Amino acid sequence: MNYNEPSIKKKREELSSPKKRRRTTASAVAFRVILFLICAICVSGAGLAYGSFKGIIASAPKNVSLSPKYSSTIIYDDNNKAVQPLHDYSSNRIKVKSEELPDNLKNAFIAIEDERFYEHDGVDFKGILRALWTDLRNGSTSQGASTLTQQLIKNNVFEAGGESNIIAKIKRKIQEQYLAINAEKTKPKEEILTDYLNTINLGKGNLGAETASKYYFGKSAKNLTLSECAVLAGITKNPTYLNPVDYPEANDARRKLILKKMYQLNYILRKNTSRLLRITFTQRLRAIPPRETKILYIPILQMRLSPRLSLIFRNKRDIRNRRLTSLFIAVA
Fold it and tell me: Are 119 and 182 contacting, i.e. CB atoms less than 8 angstroms apart?
């Protein structure tokens, strides 16, 4: 390029020409207009998002209960001996108190489902960021970040989710997080954990840890061993394909992962972890015959009993929660 004096003078004249100035001014105005439109769109979008968020929060369920709604009704005889549990698919549950659930069981679920349970306020924002980062690296959406409180609300307030579209799912997720934060302001962690362990689906139609413990191991949850606690905690991610009866190998792999996590979180000692990891638990489980979930098979008694019980108790919940003795059976 020629940079002698005549060429420089000519270039200066071109730049200072009215035509060039008009073109430069028009470009500057167009840039400002575009920038203004972008800012306006961003502000409008933010306002719309904020309004939508407030609307979703305002429409969240009020006065919610985190305790499971339904449980088995037990018929007792004159000697106070359990004769027959009455339930359907939504009430195959035996509620127990916190002191009836061993620490190993509680810690096993915390280790695999919500390791920061005692640290967060209902929503684990660190866990959400970790899950997002993991999913971005792996190119999948396999990582979950819902806390135990959120899972409990999903099951007992939103009837386990099951939305038909992504918009409904996002709405439920926002309300779920809002309710989880509010719940932890008023309910102790131990109460939330107990409600969770009384609620969860643990495969083969078993709801809650007590029912599952009796089904898989033939004993109450309070008598479970450490390894048995890990077996139950391993089911929650997928109750169908991780239950130890139909998929023992998959459950055993999950059990070992839980034991490792419990060790990492200082819930169990190294010697216990090493010993239990050497055991293939599927062999022990197969020695226990699967117990059939009992559903009421006496429809005539039920038809004769229910109308009379309805006169005695005010609503169905009273019927579910009362112990029915032979006194009431005699009424039929």
Answer: no
